[in-house]
Design a protein that fits this description.
The chain has about 150 residues and is an alpha+beta fold. The chain has helices at about 15-30, 90-105, 120-125; strands at about 1-5, 45-50, 55-65, 70-80, 110-115, 125-130, 135, 140-145.
């Protein structure tokens, strides 16, 4: 298993293709969401993914403050259908939080979670900060992770 962390400009065409394919396979095909998956924010993101045996198993992107929200944000969090439940999602989330903290000095991290996945994000330390809202035809919550003080 390999964990990758790269800016858009540092990704190879094959890496970009594999990550985009996973996103389209899940968000567009599996979830039948006809929203623009490639939204012109990828160029401003740090991309985090886990690859095993040449396949991207889980992916997310990290966006600096002001790109998606007032906070550093995680987005496009996805795991491959065939390997869900094997811990890849939690691993990529922990790496995404690490990247947000180290590269962007985040003490708060924002994301917009599909409602069904709220419990998963809560296990990663996020809490709901909004009522349910519809985004791209699907119910979501705004969620926030905050660095714990010792």
């Amino acid at each position: 298993m390999e964990v990758h962390v790269k800016a858009f400009a540092d990704m190879t065409p094959l890496e970009l293709y594999k990550c985009a394919k996973l996103r389209v396979d899940v968000f567009v095909c599996e979830q039948e969401c006809l929203a623009p998956e490639l939204d012109d924010r990828d160029q401003d993101a740090v991309h985090v993914w886990i690859e095993e045996d040449g396949r991207v198993e889980a992916y997310l992107r990290v966006l600096d403050r002001g790109v998606e929200s007032e906070y550093v944000a995680l987005g496009r969090v996805v795991t491959r259908k065939e390997t869900r439940g094997k811990g890849y999602g939690a691993m990529v989330m922990q790496e995404g939080i690490r990247v947000a903290r180290e590269q962007f000095h985040a003490d708060k991290i924002y994301l917009e979670a599909q409602t069904y996945a709220e419990g998963f994000y809560m296990k990663q330390g996020f809490r709901r900060i909004s009522e349910e809202f519809i985004l791209d035809g699907m119910p979501h919550y705004k969620m926030l992770w905050e660095e714990k003080e010792n």
